[in-house]
Amino acid sequence: MGHAGAAAFAVRYLGNGPVEALPRPELRCVREDERAPVGPAEFRRVLGNFASGVTVITAPGAEGEPGPAGFACQSFASLSLEPPLVCFMVGRTSTTWPRIARAGVFCVNVLGAGQAGLCRAFAVSGADKFAGVAYDPAPVSGSPRLSGAAAWIDCTVHAVHTGGDHLIVVGRVDALGADGPQEPLLFHRGRFARLAGD
């Protein structure tokens, strides 16, 4: 089957009602006695050329916890329209992720161009990240919705998958909104950036 035949098959497959999961491909991990095909420094240097938006993922504090949880995240993406799903990636060693997992809900706060300081505040570990930060509860989950964010997406944890040294968290979107057109905060080559003017 050539490329055209494969494409036609995919169109027929995807056009016939709900999409069923395909069998998982066999994955082969790099053994401890093998050299990784790409070193971490080179991986980071090259992938840094991909500009990404910046978000803060927040969740309400679970019972017995001191307050809400949150962390800065640039690995966020929309995933599906039907049903509406988004995803973000979080390091397995994150101390914030277990708190979000216990809450079972989260809000993605898409940061605007003037919110680099807010991003830095949520990128630190061990501090009270919400000190002096204005927010209100997202309408469904009650997760902190940060004031001034360009957009917010209120979610329930739908699935969690492993991805190397990270976890891939899929969220079902329950509510969302945007506060009008606003330039995004971007991250590119290890620093914050803005869109160039027309």
UniProtKB/TrEMBL annotation:
It comes from Streptomyces musisoli. SMART domains: Flavin_Reduct. The keyword Lipoprotein does not apply. Residues 47-194 form the Flavin reductase like domain. The keyword Calcium does not apply. InterPro entries: Flavin_Rdtase-like_dom (IPR002563), NADH-dep_flavin_reductase (IPR050268), Split_barrel_FMN-bd (IPR012349). This is Flavin reductase family protein. Belongs to the non-flavoprotein flavin reductase family. Keywords: Oxidoreductase. Pfam families: Flavin_Reduct (PF01613).
